[in-house]
Specification:
Blueprint: H1 4-7, E1 45-48, H2 53-68, E2 73-76, H3 82-91, E3 96-100, H4 101-108, H5 120-128, E4 135-137, E5 147-151, H6 153-159, H7 164-168, E6 175-178, H8 186-196, E7 202-205, H9 211-219, E8 224-228, H10 232-236, E9 240-241, E10 254-259, H11 265-277, H12 280-291, H13 297-307
Parallel strand pairs: 1-2, 6-7, 6-8
Antiparallel strand pairs: 3-10, 4-10, 5-8, 5-9
Helix pairs in contact: 2-11, 2-13, 4-5, 12-13
Length: 311
């Protein structure tokens, strides 16, 4: 087991107070109602999420299906980027959250994902070799949400862009934007330069697949955006995701990640039941209810679970 990666996040622990959830001026792990210390102090499972709508929706699904099974939960959503919420998982501030198998593997594995590991099954198997002690994954869903580099229809037409290979030839003339962490990740600017030779004129730090990034792409402030493939804004704005021909962005199937001390058969069965019915199509459909229709993640999660016989 490899604990280096999560424990190495201790050096960024001081950043937690400075990095905040989107739209908030407070650290969600430092409020008066937040958990402190080891999560074994409470019987409740503390469910966390990253700071973007899809992660919160998935975390709410986990909460509600666990509550239906009689498991006590505490919600601790919108924590921040992977660098922050994995530290929270490691130190016991949270016990469970939805993750993406490829991104988690690339983050935990020394030197990034092993060569040739691309398919959902291969990624999941490789992930088991690098999970820290005391952390485990349950069954992964068929639902997948990949990072994309996406452009407006006008930019795609102007530069004849369909793939990331096409982008490499003109990237030096274009401004790109997305979550700040995308700059430092291999499944980000580092890998784009190494694999495709893509180097942008400028990078704008905005939000991870969120409204700031979408708005900046729509109004031309940036010409290339890091958006998630299930984002309804891609369809509603007629954006064009560029094909990743060299598989820089791995399989990104959704998988529950949980502290072993908080897992049992009831928890496993409940969470696996969500993974069993979650597809890319229905995730995209229900996420649009949050992003476009502005319904609460709690209401949409209830609707999803009810429709699939899990509520």
């Amino acid at each position: 087991m490899n604990r280096r990666n999560l424990l190495g996040l201790a050096m960024v622990g001081s950043l937690t107070a400075g990095l905040v959830a989107c739209g908030s001026d407070e650290d969600p792990l430092a409020t008066g109602d937040s958990p402190t210390g080891d999560s074994t102090e409470t019987t409740a499972i503390i469910v966390g999420s990253a700071n973007f709508p899809e992660s919160e929706l998935l975390a709410e699904m986990y909460c509600q299906v666990l509550e239906t099974a009689g498991v006590e939960v505490t919600r601790q959503f919108n924590i921040g980027a992977r660098e922050i919420y994995l530290k929270a998982l490691d130190d016991g501030s949270i016990d469970l959250l939805p993750e993406y198998n490829g991104s988690l593997l690339a983050y935990l594995a020394d030197g990034g994902a092993p060569e040739g590991v691309v398919s959902p099954e291969d990624v999941y198997d490789a992930l088991q070799d690098v999970l820290p002690e005391g952390i485990e994954t349950l069954e992964q869903a068929a639902a997948e949400d990949k990072d994309t580099l996406t452009v407006s229809r006008a930019t795609a037409t102007q530069y004849n862009l369909a793939t990331l290979d096409d982008l490499a030839a003109v990237s030096g003339d274009l401004v790109a934007g997305g979550g700040p962490e995308f700059q430092e990740r291999y499944q980000g600017l580092v890998g784009l330069q190494e694999v495709y030779g893509i180097e942008f004129k400028e990078w704008r730090s905005l939000d991870p697949g969120g409204p700031l990034t979408v708005a900046a792409l729509a109004d031309g402030t940036i010409q290339v955006a890091n958006l998630f493939s299930t984002d309804s804004a891609i369809v509603t704005n007629d954006f064009v995701p560029l094909e990743d021909t060299k598989s820089l962005f791995l399989a990104e199937n959704i998988v529950p990640v949980i502290r072993s001390s908080k897992n049992d058969q009831t928890v496993t069965d409940a969470l696996n039941s969500v993974s069993a019915v979650l597809t890319t199509d229905n995730l995209t459909e229900y996420l649009a209810k949050v992003q476009v229709d502005k319904q609460s993640s709690a209401a949409v999660a209830t609707e999803f679970l009810t429709a699939n016989g899990l509520a």
